[in-house]
């Protein structure tokens, strides 16, 4: 019976540690959410300050945003310039090798 009692104590210690760890995780998760919300609020406040400080009408602002979105979609759909192959075929390479 003594072995069972020792094993139960060890298991109980592990259970206690699990509970403490879960509590710490919950606290850090809450802190992380709070910090992320605070960051978003500060970024939004900064954005609003910039917009409110600009001397533009709401229509001008909307036109600017629309133009930026259109430009962004053009930038992401453009394909890079890929050089064409030299036009040399395997037969051309074989002919060149035979002549050298």
Question: What does this entry look like structurally?
Answer:
There is one protein chain. This protein is mainly α. The chain has one domain. 82% of the residues lie in helices and 0% in strands. The protein contains three helices and no strands. It has helices spanning 2-53, 58-77, 90-99. The longest helix has 52 residues, at 2-53. The N and C termini lie far apart (92 Å).
Detail the topology: elements first, then pairings:
Layout: H1 2-53, H2 58-77, H3 90-99
Give a brief description:
With 100 residues, the chain is mainly α.
- Strand tally, please? 0
- Overall domain count: 1
Structural class: mainly alpha
Alpha-carbon distance between the two ends: 92 Å
Low-confidence stretches: none
Compute the average pLDDT: 82
Share in helix: over 70%
Key structural traits:
100 residues, mainly alpha, elongated, 3 helices
């Amino acid at each position: 019976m003594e072995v069972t009692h020792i094993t139960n104590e060890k298991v109980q210690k592990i259970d206690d540690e699990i509970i403490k760890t879960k509590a710490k995780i919950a606290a850090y998760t809450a802190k992380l959410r709070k910090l992320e919300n605070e960051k978003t609020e500060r970024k939004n406040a900064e954005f609003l300050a910039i917009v409110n400080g600009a001397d533009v009408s709401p229509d001008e602002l909307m036109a600017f945003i629309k133009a930026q979105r259109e430009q962004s979609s053009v930038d992401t759909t453009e394909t890079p310039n890929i050089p064409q192959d030299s036009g040399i075929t395997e037969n051309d390479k074989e002919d060149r090798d035979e002549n050298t």
